[in-house]
Predict the structure.
Amino acid sequence: MNELVIYERISEGINLLLFLFQGYCLQCFSENFLERRLKNRRGNKAFVMVLFLLLRSVTWIWKPEDSTVRAAVHLVWLIVITAILVLGFYRASYGIASFLIVTFVAVNECSALFAYTLLHVSMKLLGLWLWFFEHGYFLFEEFLVAVELTGIAVIALYSAIEASLMYVFLKKVISTFREKDRKLHRTELLFLLTPGITGLLICLLLRIIIFTVESSALELFYDNYPLLVLLVPIIMLLCMMSICNRVKLFQDMIRLNQERNSRVILEKQIGSMQEHITEIERLYSGIRNIKHDMRNTLSIVMRLATENGGEEKGELDAYLTELNMTLDKLEPRYRTGNAVVDTLLNMKYHELLNTMPECRLDAEQLIFPAGLVIQSYDLGVILGNALDNAMEACKRLHEQGLGEKLFIRLSSFRRGNQFFIEVINSFDGKIFLGKEKEFPETCKSDKKLHGMGLYHIKSTVEKYYGAMEWSADSKVFTLTVMLQNQISSSSAVY
């Protein structure tokens, strides 16, 4: 009898370890999406695991006799436990919190029912020991020991399968869901919750059916419908896979939406670049017209020079001064060796003069040597986006009254077949980098139409088998772009 008590305690211990592991999975799942309320990471983890263990153990104390009520109470209590721990120990919006709660409970329940079917099949081993006992191969005490040991082994196997499935599928959701900082809208939330809620309702239905049959005869359910031994695990796997696939589909939709927004912005940039090119043509046309009229201008100068009198001399000086001013206006401030980049820099320079005159725009080291196959349009995209980001960062400092620290420096150099562009600018030291994000996020409220500049630069850089990297140190932001002096054969030609 004492041995039976020992076996029963071992079985309970296995269940407690399973509950503890489920608490561990819950805190890992939540921590990958949400910010902890407790600063101590280990303390937060321990509290979640222990409280989950204690609250799950409550179901052992009160079990309604009615199987339908028992199944519903089990599911509701598990949802309540998860909600308490997620909302109590992590900071979360209602959208992402709802997704985490429903997904965790659904994966938990599907894993449990998958393992339960295997548990029921494994219990057939007890019939084998009974056959040995009836045929005299076992004494009664040996029969009891074999039954208890088999029961413990089956429960351990059941717990291991349930824990493994839950861990694998939750980890899959974590790795697939990359937009963890995204604020979910109602439609997006409903889209993500649908497979989880469907899985929970299927699990509730199966629990009601299974336990209703068990109350009268343990084997009646699978004896009458043996195909369910195969169908139930498949249904549970499909439910968990549908949750993971729905998350992947959601991520693909976000990516496609971002690409669509990127195309809209790129179209605007193309229009802007066309305006820049038109401005260049107008500028050069003006210079040609000035040269054409230079002969007439020289004739006027010579006539005025031959005339006598101080008034004519003063008139000549005024005319020459005005002529020099006109020529200065046509003279670009920056000369990089690329007409499109020169126009872009001059436009940004005059924009800074109007908004932040104290900001220094230094491009003396930005030089484009002859022989580059990099298209002017692509250079415009790279430098245009980089300058927009740098000017936006300087603007935030300007609004804080730190105008004396504003600067933007551009430089370039060539090493063999590689061409490097570097943009350095001052900023306020605040970087908004989301989880699993490659680049910092924009500070603007409309993140759908802003914050894509670095992604456009990366897309352009990849046309030339290049790479880019960024760093932020001591309130100085540095963007470095490396381009191969050759264009990808698969790239679109503008």
Observations:
- The beta strands are 35-36, 90-91, 360-365, 407-415, 418-426, 467-473, 476-484.
- The first helix runs from residue 2 to 31.
- The two ends are 85 Å apart (CA to CA).
